[in-house]
Design brief:
The protein is an alpha+beta fold and 356 residues long. It has two domains: 2-28 and 194-351, Phosphatidylinositol 3-kinase Catalytic Subunit, Chain A, Domain 5 (Orthogonal Bundle), CATH 1.10.1070; 41-187, no CATH class. It has helices at 2-18, 49-54, 132-151, 185-190, 209-222, 294-306, 308-316, 323-340, 343-351; strands at 41-47, 63-70, 76-85, 101-105, 120-124, 158-167, 175-182, 195-196, 243-247, 253-257. The protein has a seven-stranded mixed barrel. Strands 8-9-10 form a three-stranded antiparallel sheet. β2 (63-70) and β3 (76-85) form a beta hairpin. α3 runs antiparallel to α7 (308-316), α5 crosses α6 and α7 (308-316) packs antiparallel against α8. The protein is globular and about 60 Å long.
Length: 356
């Protein structure tokens, strides 16, 4: 009954005019420079890390902190920021002793800096300080975001950083690790002329079908089963699970994927596949897209094939990626392209497993 009500709620506001509003939507908004470059940032964060890490609730408090970096001319920029923990699975102490963080850029602080125009930013951290493989996970997940950037502008932009953390509460040695910043969800929508939407559920046929098909093939590429473009997880208030909904209440509506640490291409030691699927490891791919005509699938697959060389180059030129991570990823990409370039494998591994 609740599902039926949710469907009705969405359709009251969306369905009457969606077919009539599939025109180009070209309005865009200019933002700051943080995500306009792929150059590695060098940052220092000074914060009461012990107090921050104690708070592992969904709504933890901001703690006063300082962010420092050097501009191109060597001038040091110092910003007062708020810092708090965030996340879900990685928020658990058993998973990450050094959890993901949210950076709150205080009003008026960032003018004429690389953070101008930014407000709240997600920071993906290295999770475990004394285990080198966890820093590789950071780089591998960062590169998944970059992979999707190659396919569409309707994607979260990211910026890689080398971050030195100074714990102001204890006389610890500073630690320096890779991390990356993720574009705010409102900005990812607004720079493309849309709005981030909070809705209870999204029926499959409400989405822009080309964009939905692209997301479904991309999730297959990276071996991710920790997502749902149509419903939220039980502990989430709004749709959808690890997919942000953007667009317009009058239509169209677009899915934007995020949060890839449970994917096979990242292959974290704590990742597990969706328990409802008949696979044992996240490195095993299983297609979870809806069923659609073969010509539509082939058209989307061709867009991936056209980006094949750029995808390989992204990893081959990646800063900080060790030899093992590179080899694992290239092998995983090879398996994907061997599948989608073979009509028989497309039939047996994508068409066969689609969601009816």
């Amino acid at each position: 009954m609740r599902t039926a009500i949710a469907f009705a709620f969405f359709w009251v506001f969306v369905s009457p005019s969606i077919a009539a509003t599939q025109q180009d939507h070209t309005t865009s908004r200019e933002f700051g420079v943080l995500f306009s470059s792929d150059e590695l940032l060098s940052l220092t964060i000074e914060a009461p890390l012990r107090s921050i890490f104690r708070q592992r609730e969904q709504e933890s408090d901001d703690h006063d902190a300082v962010l420092r970096y050097a501009q191109g001319d060597g001038t040091e920029v110092v910003l007062d920021i708020g810092l708090r923990t965030r996340g879900k699975f990685r928020l658990q102490r058993s998973t990450c002793r050094f959890p993901p963080l949210r950076v709150n850029i205080k009003t008026g602080q960032a003018e004429n800096t690389v953070f101008e125009g930014e407000d709240k930013l997600k920071l993906v951290t290295h999770c475990q300080t004394n285990r080198p493989e966890y820093e590789q996970y950071v780089l591998r997940e960062y590169l998944v975001y970059r992979l999707y950037n190659l396919l569409t502008d309707l994607s979260f932009q990211v910026r890689l950083a080398r971050i030195t953390y100074v714990n102001t509460e204890e006389d610890d040695e500073p630690i320096t690790r890779f991390g990356f910043l993720i574009e705010d969800e409102d900005n990812v929508a607004l720079r493309s002329g849309w709005e981030a939407m909070s809705v209870p559920i999204v029926p499959p046929d409400v989405y822009d079908q080309d964009q939905l098909n692209q997301v479904e093939i991309f999730q297959y590429l990276i071996g991710n089963t920790d997502w749902d473009a149509f419903r939220n997880a039980p502990d989430e208030d709004f749709c959808c699970h690890n997919v942000k909904v953007v667009g317009d209440m009058a239509g169209p509506v677009f899915p934007i994927p995020y949060d890839f640490d449970f994917s096979g291409i990242v292959n974290t030691r704590y990742a597990t596949p969706d328990p409802s699927l008949d696979i044992r490891r996240v490195r095993q791919r299983q297609y979870r897209g809806i069923c659609r005509p073969r010509e539509d699938i082939d058209l989307t697959l061709q867009s991936f094939i056209e980006k094949k060389d750029e995808m390989y180059a992204l990893y081959q030129n990646a800063e900080g990626l060790d030899e093992r991570s590179l080899e694992d990823t290239i092998e995983y990409l090879d398996e994907f392209f061997e599948t989608i370039e073979n009509p028989g494998r497309v039939r047996s591994r994508i068409e066969r497993d689609c969601r009816r």
